[in-house]
Records
---
Amino acid sequence: MPEIKRPLSPHVSVYSWQVSNTLSILHRATGVFLFAGALVLTAWIVSAALGQSAYDSVLNLLRGPLGLVLLLGLSAAFFYHLGNGIRHLVWDAGYGFDKHVARMSGWFTFLAAIAFTIAFWLGVTS
Amino acid sequence: MSLQSPLGKFLGLGSAKEGTEHWWSQRVTAVALIPLTLWFVVALLGMDSFEHAAVAAWLGQPVNAVLMILVLMVVLHHSQLGIQVVIEDYVHSGGLKVSMLLGSKFLHVAAGVAGIYSIIILSISALAGLGTGTGQ
């Protein structure tokens, strides 16, 4: 039987890009990235129990340039995933579905994540 | 006429034999993670030092140990549920999909057990006055 080419909705190539779908994709992407964060957290704890030398090698990796970029990315991903997760929970409760409300909460979540990330690093380095 | 039994109709689960458990677990862990992760962020901000002795002592402190075990357990559970959905959505080849699902689950459980065991070790070391962990 020949494959019937039915139109799919929303078809990615004709889908009008907007805040809502960008943030939705970002939620999933940050979630996957935070899986790596969970493993970093585990490595940090396990190395502390293993002893000084194991802990120092983990700490030196995290304090190196690549480690700091990773931690910066993880913190930003965390604050975004947390904020947008709360946004999702509010939706699950049945609120905030109006188009303008959803857009506004999206922008608010995104900007709050940036603000929290900056505030966290100012706090942790001070 | 429906061929479903009255019990089947009441449970409403169809042939999958399950309903909203995965979805619900993801929400329950999400709600739990709001206070847990915020506590961890505040704790990180309050750390005087990230050197080994300070961190090992901090992890061995009873309240921190219990909360860190909770953080780790719930984070890894929530992560496992999420990664599972992502794999199911994007990996369609049967063998690869099953291997990745199993690999992810094993990795999450192993990380959780290793992390919790480590926190217990650090707690016992702190209680016994052994100082900074074992293994040296």
---
Amino acid sequence: MKKLSTHRRHPLAGLVVVLLGLVVAGGLYAAVRPAAAEGSQAGDQELIAEGRRLFVVGCSSCHGLNAEGIETKSGGNNGPSLIGVGAAAVDFQVDTGRMPMARPDVQAPRKEKVYNDDEIAALAAYVASLAPGPAIPAPEDYSTEGASVVRGGEFFRTNCTACHNFAGAGGALADGRYAPPLRGVEPKHIYEAMETGPQQMPVFSWLDEQDKRDIIAYLQRLEEQPAYGGPSLGSRGPVTEGLWGWVGGVGILVLAAVWIANNGARAGKKHQ
Amino acid sequence: MSAPAPNTTGSTRAAPTPNLPKRRVIGTGALTWVDERLGLGGLAKKQLRKVFPDHWSFMLGEIALWSFVILLLTGVFLSLWFKPSMAEVEYLGSYAELRGLHMSEAYASTLDLSFDVRGGLLMRQMHHWSANLFLASMTIHMLRVFFTGAFRKPREMNWLIGLALLQLGIIEGFAGYSLPDDLLSGTGLRIAEGLMRSVPVVGSYVSFFIFGGEFPGDVIIPRLYTVHVLLIPGLLLGLITAHMLLLVYHKHTQWPGPGRTNNNVVGFPLMPVYMAKAGGYFFIVFGVTALMGALLQINPIWMYGPYNPSQVTAGSQPDWYMGWLEGGLRLMLPWETEIWGYTISWNVMLPGLALMGLLFTVLAAYPFIERWITGDDREHHLLDRPRNQPTRTAFGIAGVTAYGLLWIAGGNDIIAAQFGLSVHTLAVVLRFAVVIGPILAFVVARRWALSLQRHDRELLLHGYETGVIVRSPEGSYSEIHAPIDPNRAYSLTTHERREPLQLASPVDANGVAAPGQAKERVRARLFRFWYADDVPKPTPEEIEAAAHHASHDGGNGHHVGIETSGMVGGEDFASHSSSEGTSAVKR
Amino acid sequence: MTSHGPDGHLPQRSAVTDGDTTGQDLSLLPDRPAEPVSDPGIPPHEPRPTDVDPVLERRAERQVAMLFASAALLALAFCVAYFTIDESDIFLGYGALNLALGLTLGFALLFIGVGAIQWARKLMADHELVEYRHGAASTAADRAESIAAFQAGAEESGFGRRTLVRNSLLGSLAVLGLPAVVLLRDLGPLPGDAFARTVWKKGVRVVKDVSGEPIRPEELSVGGQINAAPASFFETEGPDGTVIPAEYEGHQLQIEKTKAPVILVRMAPDDITPGPGREDWGIDGILCYSKICTHVGCPISLWEQQTHQLLCPCHQSTFDLADSGRVLFGPAARPMPQLPLDVDEEGYLIAADGFNEPVGPSYWERG
């Protein structure tokens, strides 16, 4: 008993209690929370039904109960119709975390994805069942073996850099939207984006399959490429270079000038 | 000293006397050899120990000078490998991502410099960084000269030379980064061609003559190369020499202070102090440039690709020193008029061509405008503190604000993408800001300068605030002021009192109106606008009165303005705790 | 009027502007008794620690010497790096050679500079000296003499008197300016109507840029955009498999590329408002526009598929491709020119005609 009472006011006691509480609450929640659908690959219909279920809960508030879209009075929409967008579009949007959007906004940014792979497959199957549309690409479709990086670069600079910039660092669109940076994007998603034209990006499905693989190969090479000249300052071009030149260059040199013209310590009174 | 022996040439210089022993002073033999041919003694005796004043703001022009030297050195290196030709070649160098592509020789040789010449990328980056530093330092040097009034007589011509250097620098930089014929700079040349087209009547001829035909043609790179490597550097070299010679002749201006008058220069001698400091600064500028070349990637042309008129990258901007012009182009309203089958593109001509002319005309005219307003024809070698010239300072700040807002507008798409703003909204806001901002800045800067003048006056009359609060027996609180030291006090009073312009009588004895009256009235009004609000510096009587007041105000803080000699730093505050303490101005 | 005193110092004179427009005499700023504070004179020199303490002085010397020695070592390190590091080496994701060369060179130079500055600041004598200025103008005597010399020379030359000789000289020099100007004539050919011409005309196939493949309308779905060019820019295959070279190549191709590139976009037909007379310029909602901005000529590939806005990256001119390329925002004054489309016998997209107006930036003679 004495041992217990001597440790009751131990500084770590509070921490232990909190940790204990968290563990208990988390464990209870984990035990009680509905399990995700497992292994629903068994049967297309089951997958589609699962996808329908998820869709109604997570997507219909903007995209309509039957994915027909919800139009607003001003001619816009809360969420466009998904009929005919295909599994590839769903896979792109949901796997990159763009959908579901955290809030209605002009831009749907890439973020942490909300659904796991099985759920995404279900959603994609459901949307694909509504009308024919681009399918999720197979790995051969976006494999870069034997692709021509040089040719990919030419396609990239003709079709992509006007929005995404020469290094794939992104750029401004109208009304506060932007073309996102392409760093860290999986080849599958690049393929799907070209194929489906997400949000304001146009549809580039007309590119030959080899052209698309070449572009993906070039983008991968851009990411692997070292910054030959030193830190790349964001690869945004002369604007950031000018900023660094002023702050890093002129700023340091002006500080150096202040140091040079400052005539330094004096010996003090006792030496006069 | 023996009288100089006449020699056979009839000159009166001392003839060499080989019988005397050679003195063991460094380099005497070589120096004598040179002197016997060039006679530099007269020049050297004056200039070797020439005095330069010491202040960090006097070194900004040095950054420009040393950057120019670095540009020459790195530029020569680059010119040994760069091929200024637009002939089409197939690239077979190390950069695999472009191998096999057809491109101009200029671009291919730049790729070779970057990847196949060791140190080539470093030299390229150093060259580009020091070009940016060259222009940045010229700009801040110009601002320093403007805000301190160092453009006044006798330095007006040097001011004009400086403006010419700035202008040439901008063109030189543009020509330089267009040489590699990459996508970004090719886009810039394309825009330049569009600007040329907008010139009325002769625009298409100008475009065809400069590009040797239709854009892009096959001669613009070699032509820009000649401009960049020969013509403008030659002009720059000549103008920099003239700029320095005038500096040597007029001697450098100095800040007012104890012992410094309009008639002297106080500082350190050229040899050895400034040779060491300026020479050292050269190495520092060079070193910083090299470190920038190592640590900050600039103009990665291999990622832009060769220039293709059907390609473009998001975030296409010129280098920073043309950013303000770019901003003007972006913000301009879409004005174009068509008369009798001819088109005048105001939307391109005004920001693209007229804006540059406007800025440099205003800058060039300013010294002469100010001289006309003040009627001041004296030489000025003491600098103005910006607060003592509130209107000039306010105009300068307004100009900087307008420039800065246009500069921001030049990067509006990068800013919009970075901060999630709408480019269009940003453009509209900046359109208003470019007009309202400078006006606001003018008003604020002027008031700020005037209140700083008032603060100076307070310092002189009442000393500086020590932060020590004293409570009187009656219960009131006051802050102790300590007197400022005489050196500082003197520096605060060297600026001039400006007497209002005396207008001559408008009519003479016979009632005949004097000529030029309208101009004189305008001048008087401008003079009032420029100077009437200045806070007058205290007269000796006022300082006396303030000190007198301080000694009799019941000791509620000492408000003695200026220390007397012998005291460095403040007085002993412990003696202030009692009222009617020791006080009075010890004069 | 003023003379230099024995020490070169000009005598004091009143500095009030008294209308002395020669203004050449150096005048002092007021140091009259009316000034509130008199000049305390140059502050006495205070020695630095290195001036009074030989230990500190030697330490400073060692510091400076160490800086110079380090600079030398770094310069040597530069040479070692140059010969040992390969251009393809990578360090921390950056080019190793550039980093090594730049850092060694940079610090070597920096240390020399810092060493020189420290030498000046700590060890060189830092007594302030005074030098007197001279007026910028020459002395009155010199000026008078030069004026006299000039006048003597001018008189002797007869430039003022002999007006016939003088005027004929000036006239000939003026006319000599003409050859200087005329020599520049061959800088370039005359523009003619070059700006108004593009390679597009009836029947020219619209093909995908870079690959040169022809386009069937079915390939382009709603919301799609193809960056396209005329077929004459690319090699084609003849009927028997021979390669037919491109009609334009080299510099001529570059020139035509500043005018001919087009953008094909497909929108839902309901969204399109065709311009008057342009109702048949599209094929099933596929429209073709020039992509050369009418502001100053940048090519535009940025098209928002939902808002139908074409946004130029250079100065943000925005065009509505669903409404005849009308300018929505920005400095461009004229809408984007549109190319009428048709389909050839094989089902590929072709131009139904050339552009009905010059493409690209405006110019004086545009009309």
---
Amino acid sequence: MGKTLYEKLWDSHVVRALADGTCLVYIDRQLVHEVTSPQAFAGVRARHRGLWRADANLAVADHNVPTKDRALGISDPTSRVQIETLDRNCREFGVVLFAMDDVRQGIVHVVGPEQGATLPGMTIVCGDSHTSTLGAFGALAYGVGTSEVEQVMATQCLLQKRSRTMRVRLEGTVPAGVGAKDMALAVIGKIGTAGGTGYAIEFAGSAVRALSMEGRMTLCNMAIEAGARAGLVGVDETTLSYLAGRPFAPSGALWDQAVRAWRTCVTDPDATFDREWVIDVSALAPQVTFGTSPEMVVPIDGQVPDPARESDAARREALTAALRYMDLRPGTPMTEVPIDVVFIGSCTNARIEDLRAAAEVVAGRKVAAGVRRALVVPGSGLVKRAAEAEGLDRIFKEAGFEWRDPGCSMCLAMNADRLESGERCASTSNRNFEGRQGAGGRTHLVSPQMAAAAAIAGHFVDVRHH
Amino acid sequence: MQRFEKETGLVVPLDRLNVDTDAIIPKQFLKAVGRTGFGANLFDNWRYLDRGEPGQETARTPNPDFVLNKPRYQGASILLARANFGCGSSREHAPWALVEYGIRAIVAPSFADIFYQNSLKNGLLPVVLPEDTVDRLFQAVEAEVGYALTIDLRAERVFAHDEEIGTFAIDPFRKECLLNGLDDIGWTLRHEAEIREYEARRRREAPWLFPAEGSRI
Ligand code: SF4
């Protein structure tokens, strides 16, 4: 019987299998950022060991970095210490680092693929849950904790158990104005935030094949919000043409050899999955979340649901609490919800294609008077440069958006970019948890087009009719 | 890592679905470069009425309505929780904060994957019990001040008042590590030769994964 892509990736990385199924698994690439690595480097230092393979690691600061006035340095002393610690650790252990003034600096999950440092067939980890993004390349990529970051640094291996396999087939052609983000939210709405727990989800089907690498990354990025540790998409021509010529990707004869191997990074036709979903996306509407969990999502033409209609007590309680936190009343049409802030950015939606899609909606229009702040934060310095070459920065600035430097920014508000208590934000990020974008802040997750349209209207609107 | 064999302790109930790691330890405390000092900020947004900042020295204002602040739950070492506990960010600061506060085990119908693994690596035992058992436990804790559970890892059983409440499963390897306080790195380094062997084979099969000596990557 054939194997799924996940099984191929797993089997080819097992160094040793234990009786209970726990395996010692080899890790090809580790991406490192400033927040989850200091204790790991300290651990390696305490054991008087170097890194097992310094060249398997690639580091960049992203979570804490300021997104404006960088020349002035970092004013928050705790953020500064953390970033300086990363610099020092990378120097000491010989890890390649894209420093804050390097044009290649950006969000770790945007930078890795952009550099060709995340390749098909690899096992990739990072001390960050959205490492699932990189599964878009037919690689096994997932987030780990700091102890595991240290273990990979020290041994290039992890002790893990095989996940169960799930395939989510997205079939059909999505309507204009609907994209990967809407598909991701619709999947989570359907299977729930714990629906993928214990699984690696492979996204397949005609709608996925039609997506660009950017779109596939958006989809895999949010696999973790469905509870899965990893998202996957099989390799095809789209994957290969994205990788060709990237700085860290192989070239010449090595490229040809690699491509032959990468073409096998797909699920065999006769392979079976532990669980399978088929979702028709041909009539999918743009999605918008209303609550404090990504599964609390409705189509834009929908309404805030009524907790009274929820039969399960714990869910009813959760829904009631979410609406209280979000200050929303049951039955309110989503298009009548006004917004204060717009955030276009994050590892979900800050690649060039996302900025193009948003700019197309914004072009020639102005941010509504009621919107207090509208931010565009490119995913990396190279995305920023490409956008500027196309004139996207001017479109945003003329409309009244702020055009920032790359980083995680208001996705998690560890730097100065954050919501004030009570502010409501249309955000292209991936988590709408309480306080995620600032204590008391209210987050609605949407696509870049939907965020742009909301900025112009001052409330959520259906971008299909905008 | 602290060993775990059997724990008898007071139970504190946290009756919320999908408790995420940012609720367990809010992001502003992640700027620390050490592994300790997180216990005081466990559930910071819910536990205090004022907003906490790292390195803060002024006294905080506890939220009297938050369950961890109720006098009857002081000294609890077992956290009773709802489904999908620990979802969200991969931060290991979450189990660090729980352990430092004094939590030794968490009982819930399900856990988010990364949090589950991170807990095991810090001597914090996540115990999965069926949804209806957890429901009954919430009622029992509510009804009886001082309600305690005993979690026996070796037997994989949970008891209350000497009566069995349920059984749970845990990977034998993880169980062994917890019982002995063993960490993964120590175990892995015993298999160094095998890793080198695997690496040599991969280098032949997939040379593009191994940058040439002297190149930057
Ligand atoms: S952009 Fe947001 S989700 Fe992505 S790595 Fe940064 S903080 Fe995490």
---
Amino acid sequence: MTSSTTEAVAARARPEELWVKCPGCGQIAFRKEVERNLNVCPKCGHHLRLTLEQRLAVTLDPGSWRELFADLAPGDPLGFADAKPYPKRLEEARRKTGRLDAVSVGLGRIEGRALALAVMDFGFMGGSMGTVVGEKLSRLFERAAQARLPVVIFSTSGGARMQEGTLSLMQMAKVSCAIARLRERRLPYLSVLCDPTTGGVAASFAMQGDLNLAEPGALIGFAGRRVIEQTTHERLPENFQRAEFMLAHGMLDAIVPRHLMRSTLARLLVLLAPGRRRALAPTVLAGG
Amino acid sequence: MAAGAKRSAQSTGDAWERVKLARDPARPQTLDYINGLCQGFFELHGDRCFRDDPAIVAGLGYFGRQPVALVGHQRGHSTAERLKRNFGRPHPEGYRKAARLFELAERFGLPVITFIDTQGAEPGVGAEERGQAEAIARCLVLMARLEVPVVSCVVGEGGSGGALALGVANAILMLENACYSVITPEGCAAILWRESTPENVARAAGMLGLCAPELLRLAVVDEIVPEPGGGAQADPEAAVRLLGVVLRRHLARLARLGPQKLRRARQRKFAAMGVPFLLPGAVANSGPSG
């Protein structure tokens, strides 16, 4: 984990990447300044996408991350090949990201509170979910259930991974089963939907949180915008499927700006802390 | 995997033919199976939130002497019926109706039988506004928790999350000429080659491994249900009877399991999905314990 982080930092020291153009307002800003601002545009507040390493860094207490199951790698169950064979695509994604598939799972702390955490990597084949993403998330929920820990997932994904066919589809059900078990144990699961979260990931664990939170401006939906435009021949409003649109339609509990994410998660994890079910706070008892 | 590659190459030719067969409107659909296999079917309507979605049929009836809950996609046979039922593409309210049936089944201890036959959930503005993703996600986690027997039958086309929303079952049966896929061949071709020419679509169908024998090999389905000679559309009544025989056997087997065992067995079954295909060296999942 630490070695891949170092690599990622080293790879980024190229001159053309000293500056960043905000996809929100189109203005150019010094990358260092944007990064200091948690990759939120200092001019317009647009939330730029984070790499997995950046997400861990801005979310967890320093030094608290312990990654699990990092050695899991997918096979090629269908022998899938379009322009390139699937194993070749995987190899390219591995070189690019320094990891074996599109999610990292592990244990960490936020403001001192222990939790099980998963962060998806949109840079790895669009954050798509195949057998490895399903297995890692399933094991993480299982570990959390055993250790009585809350779970937080930062999702960013185009959906199920085509190259593993129907097995990818089944991972939606597999993770749902793991979440069902966590619910039986009355442990909280907070889902944070980041830009973008669509398709089979939105239609499974990303929308199954006890609370569903999102980052400002995140694209969230089931069907792709292009597909909807082609089927309905309608021009869609600019904010269609954005977090603000989803909040207004009742699909999210809250939109949380990035600089408040850590403190918000900590606060909610305290409110939903397991084991509180029977012991009411003294003030409530006195007031009743 | 070499074996996988070989098998995919072999099935490239007929996979697309099977998809076309699976979509044939003359094949028996959910209501034909329900009427052929169940007595005293009473259809239930509505999601109690927005409206009734005709793309999903739900209700109660008797399978033999056993009261059961029945849910399935209904594509429609005639043009008028297909329009009315949105070609079997449900809106969120369809999945919320299904969820209501699952809760009802749980409360009254009724085994659940589902019939899967949809190209996918409706992609549209209203569907997104009313939470298509959330509605499907809700069905998945709800089915995962049921303490009654659940059997799913893929009878036609099983298309992506909109199909799986009715498919978290103890036993998954698949008709010989049905298909079950993460994406339609058309959608896959559009992503891979930018255009869905007939050649591209046929090629995509071959690559997706969506036919019954392939899915049995991947342990996505438990049993392939034979169809009458020439396919289910050639003799719908025989097709309904053949499914009835297999369905009865699975329901009888599951009836012997207790509530918690049913739930746990279903969760274990899905926990194992895909595990044999992780690369060697990766430690196999111990599965849910306890």
